[in-house]
Amino acid sequence: MLLCMPTHDIPRDDWVASLRAFSKKHDGRLVDLEIFGPELGDQVSARNLPFDGVSADLRHYGGEIIIAVGDTPEHHVVHTVSAPSHVRLKQSEDNVDEVLEIESEGITALLSIRPPAAESRIDQIPEHTA
Q1: For 30-41, how does the pLDDT look when each residue is reduced to its tens digit (9 = 90+)?
Q2: In terms of DSSP H, where are the helices of the chain?
Q3: Residue 53: how many CA atoms within 13 Å on its side-chain side?
Q4: Cβ contacts of 34 within 8 Å, gap of 6 or more
Q5: Where does the pLDDT of residue 117 fall: very low under 50, low under 70, confident under 90, or very high at 90 and above?
Q6: Which residues contact 122 (CB under 8 A, 6 or more apart)?
C-alpha cells in the first residue's frame, strides 16, 4: 500500500520548519505510530491517539526528531529518533498527507494519519461500560 503513494523527501535543511508546519496542520488528528527495524521487528507504539506534534533538534551531532502522540498522561507516547537520516512525506493521489516516515540507521518510524472519515467512525463507536 505505501509504495503506491507519492513520496516526497524533505531536505534536512527544511526539517525544522516542515515538521513545525506538519504539527500545526495535523494537531489533534488521530494517528498510529509504528517502529520498524531488523532487531526490533514491527512495533506498534500507538494506535488511534491524537497527534501532539513532531519536532527536529539538529543542534547536536546527528540531531534528533521527537514524535509525541496522546492527550492524557496515561495515553501519551513520546518516541525519539536519534541521528535521523531521512524524512519523507507520503501523500495520497489527491496530495493529502497520509504517512510521515523518519529513518535512522536501519530503524524507521511511521506516523500514519487517519483519514477524517475514519476518525468520525471511531467517535461513533459506543464506549463499553462494565
Answers
A1: 999 999 988 877
A2: 15-26, 116-123
A3: 7
A4: 42, 43, 44, 45, 109, 110, 112
A5: low
A6: 30, 48, 114
CA 114, 102, 9, 3 dihedral sign is negative
pLDDT tens profile 10-21: 999 999 999 999
Q: In 38-119, which ranges are E strands?
A: 41-57, 64-72, 75-82, 86-91, 97-104, 107-113
C-alpha cell belonging to residue 22: 506538519
Interior angle at CA 50, CA 44 and CA 51, nearest 5: 85
Residue 88, classified by CB atoms within 10 Å of its CB into exposed (0-12), middle (13-18) or buried (19+), is: middle
- Contact in structure between 32 and 48 (CB atoms under 8 Å): yes
26 three-state secondary structure: helix
